[in-house]
Q: What sequence folds into this?
């Protein structure tokens, strides 16, 4: 399939949005930080040009509704997230939003009798406040008010971040998606190596693995690095190091049943000539099986306590989030797979190791996900990329998928 001008235009748009960052030279855009307003401005302009009604809900999701007079009110929802990890690539999340807007344009060109809502979710990664999916939780009607008290590294609560962005946390309940919405489709890069390894452009997501996020702090005694003999130390750094290796070993021994990552380590006082008094670590543990995930988390928290006890330190662990594994909607996924096949592409069903807003939206709407190949399997990294021809393939499939949904809505035979 040759690459189209529209694929190049969408890729250029993702790269333009990637420059809207908290940092110079790197793409970092956390929940409701100033560059989010710039992304809203850009997408609002795009949505208005498409004749969409545009709002920002109380948790910062930017939402565009296309409600043609020739379509009934039940709308189909498309979207993905616009926040990023630090030093991110240009396509995780944003690609799904710009492709959703392209699908609105093609639905209009085809006078498709289907109302559409595009949502640019405000917070999926969980970088700023440690808990992901703040945006989609509100849309799915599952926003726990206790989340408003979470604080970022500067001590700013979620509630203040919302107010500082000019929004009213008291309105979060209004963010729920319309009661008669009929389904949700998220288009996203695979962020892994499977499709590329099999020479495939597209994948149909069967489910999204469950994930647990924890924070563990080892506390000992800071002391002078030059005068404190080795056997007299309560070193939080070496305790943390021992536990990090225990995390890696347990995950390796599980032979793929679960994967675990310690991605963050914050030492205090974080000076080369001071024995670390405390080290705060993150744990991200994922599995397709919730029972295995819970068991592994329990085992690793136990190991942390044992390491602390043996070394004369204290260890405090806090579970920040437990997200069960989620299956995509069977019927919606069948329509998507049929659309892949009818468009002439092989149907490759696969689970997602990455979390997505779709796993929260799936608790509220029949949900499906379409993956595009990730060259090199690289993501959450500036080298993240996508193949232009794969955008064309995904758009072809999604256009056919939406026309099927429209026919179903109109009680017409597929
Ligand atoms: O962390 C994840 O799995 C996703 O990229 N937010
Ligand atoms: Mn993502
Ligand atoms: Mn991500």
A:
């Amino acid at each position: 399939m040759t690459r189209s001008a529209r694929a190049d235009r969408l890729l250029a748009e993702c790269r333009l949005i990637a420059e809207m960052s908290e940092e110079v030279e790197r793409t970092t855009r956390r929940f409701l930080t100033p560059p989010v307003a710039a992304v809203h401005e850009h997408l609002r302009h795009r949505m208005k040009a498409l004749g969409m009604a545009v709002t920002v809900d109380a948790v910062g999701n930017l939402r565009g509704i296309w409600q043609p007079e020739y379509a009934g009110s039940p709308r189909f929802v498309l979207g993905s997230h616009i926040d990023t990890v630090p030093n991110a690539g240009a396509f995780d999340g944003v690609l799904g939003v710009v492709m959703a807007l392209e699908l609105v344009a093609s639905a209009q060109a085809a006078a498709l009798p289907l109302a559409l809502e595009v949502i640019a979710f405000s917070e999926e990664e969980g970088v700023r406040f440690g808990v992901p999916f703040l945006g989609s939780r509100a849309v799915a009607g599952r926003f726990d008010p206790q989340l408003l008290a979470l604080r970022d590294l500067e001590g700013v609560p979620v509630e203040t971040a919302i107010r500082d962005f000019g929004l009213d946390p008291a309105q979060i309940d209004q963010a729920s998606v319309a009661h008669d919405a009929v389904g949700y489709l998220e288009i996203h890069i695979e962020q892994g190596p499977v499709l590329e390894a099999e020479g495939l452009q597209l994948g149909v997501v069967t489910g999204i693995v469950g994930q647990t996020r924890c924070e563990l702090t080892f506390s000992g005694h800071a002391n002078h690095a030059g005068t404190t003999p080795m056997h007299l130390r309560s070193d939080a750094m070496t305790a943390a190091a021992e536990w990090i290796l225990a995390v890696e070993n347990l995950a390796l021994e599980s032979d793929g049943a679960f994967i675990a990552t310690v991605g963050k380590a914050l030492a205090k006082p974080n000076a080369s000539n001071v024995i670390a008094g405390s080290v705060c670590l993150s744990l991200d543990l994922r599995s397709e099986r919730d029972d295995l995930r819970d068991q592994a988390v329990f085992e690793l928290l136990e190991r942390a306590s044992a390491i602390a006890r043996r070394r004369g330190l204290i260890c405090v662990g806090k579970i920040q989030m437990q997200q069960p594994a989620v299956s995509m909607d069977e019927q919606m996924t069948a329509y998507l797979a049929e659309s892949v096949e009818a468009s002439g592409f092989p149907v490759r069903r696969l689970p997602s190791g990455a979390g997505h807003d779709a796993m929260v939206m799936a608790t509220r709407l029949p949900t499906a996900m379409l993956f595009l190949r990730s060259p090199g399997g690289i993501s959450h990294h500036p080298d993240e990329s996508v193949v232009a021809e794969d955008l064309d393939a995904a758009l072809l499939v999604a256009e056919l998928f939406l026309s099927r949904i429209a026919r179903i809505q109109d009680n017409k035979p597929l």
Observations:
- Residues 28 and 86 are 4 Å apart (CA to CA).
- The mean pLDDT is 96.
